[in-house]
Amino acid sequence: MDKIFVIGRDAVPERVALGAEESLRATFVFPSGADSSLDLAVDLTGPGAELDLAGIFAGAGEETVDIRLRVRHLAGGCTSNQLFRGIADGRSRVRFDGLVYVAPDAQKTVAHQSCNTLLLNEGARVETDPQLEIYADDVVCSHGAAIGYLSADELFYMRSRGIPEEEARRLQILSFLSPVLSRLPESYYSLIGFQR
Amino acid sequence: MEALLEIKGLHASVEGKEILHGVDLTIRRGEVHAVMGPNGAGKSTLSAVLTGRPGYEVTAGSVSFAGHDLLAMSPEERSWAGLFLSFQYPIEIPGVSMTNFLKAAVSARRKAAGQPEPTAAEFLALMKQKMALLKMKPEFAKREVNVGFSGGEKKRGEIFQMAMLEPVLSILDETDSGLDVDALKIVADGVNSLRTSETSAIIITHYQKLLEYIVPDVVHVLKEGRIVLTGGRELVDRIEKEGFEGIDG
Predict the structure, then answer these.
(1) What is the pTM of this model?
(2) Which of A23, A44, A107, B123 could bond to A49 as cystine, CB 3.0-4.6 Å?
(3) With 60 as the cut, is the pLDDT of residue B104 above it?
(4) Is residue A128 classed as helix, strand or coil in its secondary structure?
């Protein structure tokens, strides 16, 4: 399954179970212009199951973006990837609460989770809480949550080539979002405030 | 000949520490100037101030460029007026292709000049022509800006950008560092083929190697934030023999 869910428009399941050799690839779009939240639990219950989740958000104004994910590796040899990218502008609030649980007998688990946010305004707030709970010993797991600002060096490099400051910022934001943006058809870009 | 760039009594500081202590430099159209000097002399500060890099404060002096007050202009306005810097350390921009990056740059420049933006076909033809000049492989256009480039590819990429933007004054900041002889020749051939009687260049370096291929009209020695000696190309040989130690003007 390869799916795109627009939060607030599409029905999103709260619980998903993937059995042996089953896979799910899903991309969540948190549209700007309204509060949006996702609360999802996925259980990997059979060997060889593969989960690939991504999400993109653009908080502006007074909006809140609330993301809560629970991924449980209950069988061995499963893979999970979670890749979230977004921007926080205005006085928006972004919360990312992500748990990866690996059961004692879920050996050969591969699990990666990352949520990176670009902070565009000092009035915006980002709280991230990535957690790993691992009870097996033969696993490859990583998690990370980074909050950053636009790079001043990149901005100057582009401006020195004649790209106006505003366009340079837009290119930088697109480049930051590109790992998730590249999973979406361009018709979705306007949902997060980008015209093409 | 008309002065293209006129720097008068330029003092500049970084984080409150003065690096340039009164630089005077005049460049006419069609001239190539070399600025040589030991590490820490202020060479890169000079190029940063001329291009308007944030973090560099001009405390005294003036710079006029093609009749404009250069120091009052934003970095993008300086580019539109025809100034170009080949960066000593080109910046990586993940997620932005060379094509999209240069399309944005060329379009902005045309717009500022009141000209129509290039069509996609025109732009790609221009890219192809300039890539051939710098002997770039076709896949270069699709790569992300400077991401995963070798040192030599980055420098060649800078000169390629210069060819695309057709500047009036190019500053080459340590363009020779990190280049092997073959890459140095490609870069020098590229720069030489872009030379006209109307365009000028400043070549910042502390080696003489690049200056064998791009022959300067005027050579300056920058030491401790001042130009201490100005001469012809024979100065390059003197520096090669004596080093910067013996040169005090």
Answers:
(1) 0.85
(2) A44
(3) yes
(4) strand
